[in-house]
Amino acid sequence: MQTFKYLAVLMLAVGLAACSNNAPIAQASQETQTAGSLAPTGGTANDPSNTLIMELKTGKVTIQLRPDLAPKHVERIKTLASQGFYNGLKFHRVIPGFMAQTGDPQGTGAGGSSLPDLPAEFSGIPFERGTLGAARTTNPNSANSQFFICFTQAPNLNGEYTVFGKVVDGMQHVDQIAKGEPPPNPDTIIKMYLATAAP
């Protein structure tokens, strides 16, 4: 997969720089919200076929997927999770007060799956604590397998990145993921699978 260089992005009054090829290119606000305030709509709540379980070293994280917002992105992560693609992958970019990013088999931010890139599926849903977003390059239609989970509100990402799920339980485990770009000792996804395939 083509490797992209790091680029510096100037954000008004925010001042974040140095983002990887498949990374959100804006820094978050420091406001916080609970993941529980992000209740799903569109009939996806409590739907095991659209629920991912992500096992981290400190415990399980439950993610409710949103096919009503981003059907292609949801289908992609379900397909890859069913193949075991995410098992053992590193959180290669984890910024305190912003987000934790994973989904690259190379562990560098430059890789992805062998499947084609996805077209953007932007919506009016804001990026808040627990929101799952698709990482991409500066090309809106370049998301593949990488994703990030927001630690807090990230209004600068609204309408610029695809929202396709949210953490509904276990956000405290996401908070404990090792920080860094990359972390000196990165944490990994032990296993990630659909609730319908739970062991």
TrEMBL record:
From the UniProt annotation, give the residues forming the signal peptide: 1-28
Question: What is the protein's species of origin?
Answer: Hyphomicrobium nitrativorans NL23
Could you tell me what this protein is called? Answer: Peptidyl-prolyl cis-trans isomerase
Is-annotated flag, keyword Signal? Answer: yes
InterPro entries tied to this protein? Cyclophilin-like_dom_sf, Cyclophilin-type_PPIase_CS, Cyclophilin-type_PPIase_dom, Cyclophilin_A-like
Q: Which residues form the PPIase cyclophilin-type domain?
A: 59-199
Domain of life where this protein originates: Bacteria
Family designation: Belongs to the cyclophilin-type PPIase family.
EC number, as in UniProt? 5.2.1.8
One of the protein's GO biological processes:
protein folding
Per its record, what are the GO molecular function terms? peptidyl-prolyl cis-trans isomerase activity
What does this gene product do?
A: PPIases accelerate the folding of proteins. It catalyzes the cis-trans isomerization of proline imidic peptide bonds in oligopeptides.
**Database matches in SUPFAM superfamilies:** Cyclophilin-like (SSF50891)
Q: Species lineage, top-down?
A: Bacteria, Pseudomonadati, Pseudomonadota, Alphaproteobacteria, Hyphomicrobiales
Under Pfam families, the record lists: Pro_isomerase
Keyword set, alphabetical order? Isomerase, Rotamase, Signal
* Reactions performed catalytically: [protein]-peptidylproline (omega=180) = [protein]-peptidylproline (omega=0)
Q: Which enzyme type, at the first EC level?
A: isomerase
